[in-house]
Design brief:
Part of the tripartite ATP-independent periplasmic (TRAP) transport system. This protein is mostly helical and 170 residues long. It has one domain. The protein is 73% helix and 4% strand. A two-stranded antiparallel sheet has the order 1-2. A hairpin with a 3-residue loop joins strand 1 and strand 2. The protein is elongated and about 65 Å long.
């Protein structure tokens, strides 16, 4: 099991860096688009759509690593009020629920991806793109996020570091 979690963590890290690369690409595209507009030239027709798709991919690619590093926002008001043993149990329950939700989303996104793949449909906007490309990161990212959430209760760690005061919260 530890090997699976290490592999998922490595894949999550790779996805995170890919998302960072997309952020850099968006920066270049936006600067180019604005420069062309301000210089009186026609901006690229593909710029806006490319940025829209990239923003979605960034969200999907970074989810697993945010879970791995406990980077997602969580409200710990209830946890902070509990005794340590109850806090640990509730934190494990929340992590298991989040993992199950991610695995459910993996299944649903996998169905959407498979349907788009089988239909052969294209997303027709500024440029034509197979519809399955839109769904590609979803099942993979949700699966990795589910594994990262599941890692916490199975390894005895807590997604929630402790009372909110100890992590710079309330």
């Amino acid at each position: 099991m530890a090997m699976l979690f290490r592999a998922a963590a490595s894949a999550s890290r790779i996805f995170f860096f890919a998302g960072m690369g997309l952020i850099a690409a968006i920066f270049v595209i936006v600067v180019y688009d604005v420069t062309m507009r301000n210089a009186g030239f026609t901006p690229p027709y593909w710029g806006v759509n490319t940025v829209e798709y990239a923003l979605f991919w960034i969200a999907m690619l970074t989810i697993p690593d945010l879970v791995r590093t406990r980077g997602h926002v969580s409200v710990e008001v209830v946890l902070a009020a509990l005794a340590p043993a109850a806090r640990a149990r509730l934190s494990s329950a929340v992590s298991i629920f989040a993992a199950l939700l991610c695995f459910f989303m993996t299944w649903r996104a996998g169905l959407a991806f498979t349907g788009a793949w089988m239909s052969g449909n294209y997303e027709v906007r500024a440029f034509d793109m197979p519809e399955w490309i839109i769904y590609l990161p979803m099942p993979i990212s949700f699966f990795l996020a589910g594994l990262m959430f599941l890692r916490f209760p199975l390894t005895g760690e807590s997604y929630h570091a402790g009372p909110a005061e100890s992590s710079g919260g309330l």
